[in-house]
Amino acid sequence: MNEIKKKILSLKNERNALILAHYYQPLPVQDISDAVGDSFALAKLAQKAEQDTIILCGVRFMAESAKILCPGKTVYLPSESAGCPMADMVTPEDVLELKRRYPDAAVVCYVNSSAAVKAVSDICCTSSSAEKIVRSIPNRQIIFVPDKNLGAYVAKKVPEKEIILFDGFCPIHDAVSLSDAAAAKQALPDAKLLAHPECRPEVLSQADYIGSTAGILDYARSSSAQKFIVGTETGVCEILKRELPGKTIVPVKENFVCPDMKKTSLEDVLACLEGRRNPIELPENELLGARASLERMVDIE
Ligand code: SF4
Predict the structure, then answer these.
(1) Does residue 256 lie within any of the structural domains?
(2) Most buried among 7, 8, 69, 159, using CB within 10 Å?
(3) 89 lines ligand 1 (CB under 6 A)
(4) What pLDDT shows up at residue 301?
């Protein structure tokens, strides 16, 4: 084991810290983590953990979600500049303006959003719970922020609701085109295309399976199929290639990489353990408002 990994593991024990990593994190970061998962699964793990220092290797909204669920714990985001361009596309003012325009609508907010946006929303959702959350709401009109692709996917599944889409999107998933999907399928005709609902509707229309990152991993792990085209960030491909060496696993397009997710280094993780990073702090009103939106989701999930 190299020097930095040894230091991280020994300091982690000394400080009684829990290291959590998202599936899109670099593999060396995943390898020194106590658990790897989807963003909200990580926040729930942070909440349940006996440790009161959490190092969340991901992007800012993920560390914020952990802080919202366990405000008494110290939560670090190792790479302080790691943000999510989709989360940054919507502001609380945008949500408040939509509420003014559609006073009868409820606001459903994808967890890939800031604490401030969650705080002014009625309820949160994950990519796997979005359909169930939307169905559970009595209002016919639903404002869905920020991801128009996930929102459109849900709108198709729940036609009885009028979904008002916000013009946000994940620049990484939205960059996959129909021709990328068609070319990948042509190159590997007997492969299953597994796509994340942050992809565009025309890409999803080509998919054999649509689901969250964890859902895509589970599908590939349990399927008897031998070939998979992965329609989500390349981290998922890397995990599957390592776990399923006998199977053919290819990305739907080259360079399917979220640069913010790749910012975390082992040096950043060590810096958190050595107290050279600032923990996540949130204003009380954001913390309480966002917590209420997340808890409403958890009650329904
Ligand atoms: S993959 Fe997309 S949604 Fe996820 S962190 Fe990167 S930009 Fe945000």
Answers:
(1) no
(2) 8
(3) no
(4) 82
Is the shortest distance between the CB of 119 and ligand 1 below 6 Å? no
> Which atom of ligand 1 is the closest one to the Cα of 58?
5
CA angle 293, 299, 301 (to 5 degrees): 100
> Cα(117)–Cα(11) distance, rounded to whole angstroms?
35
| Residue 219 covered by a domain | yes
Q: Which residue's alpha carbon is at the smallest distance from atom 2 of ligand 1?
A: 170
Q: Is 112 in the pocket of ligand 1 (CB under 6 A)?
A: yes
The three-point CA angle 79-146-206 to 5° equals: 100
Dist. CA 12 → ligand 1 center (Å): 27
pTM greater than 0.85 (yes/no): yes
- Residues with Cβ within 8 Å of 217's Cβ and at least 6 positions away in sequence, in order, are 23, 236, 239, 240
Judge contact between 280 and 76, C-beta under 8 A. yes
Digit-coded pLDDT (tens) for 222-231: 999 999 999 9
Buried b (16+ CB within 10 A) or exposed e, 191-214: bbbbbbbbbbeebbebbbbbbbbb
**Residue 150: CB within 6 Å of ligand 1?**
no
- pLDDT tens-digit series, residues 66-85: 999 999 999 999 999 999 99
d(C-alpha 140, C-alpha 38), whole Å: 29
271 and 125 within one domain: no
The count of structural domains within the chain is 3
76/30 same-domain check: yes
**Do 227 and 265 lie in a common domain?**
no
**83 ligand 1 Cβ < 6 A:** no
205-241 pLDDT, tens digit each: 999 999 999 999 999 999 999 999 999 999 999 999 9
Rounded to whole angstroms, how far apart are CA atoms 73 and 78? Answer: 16
**85 CB within 6 A, ligand 1:** yes
Cα(14) to centroid(ligand 1), Å: 33
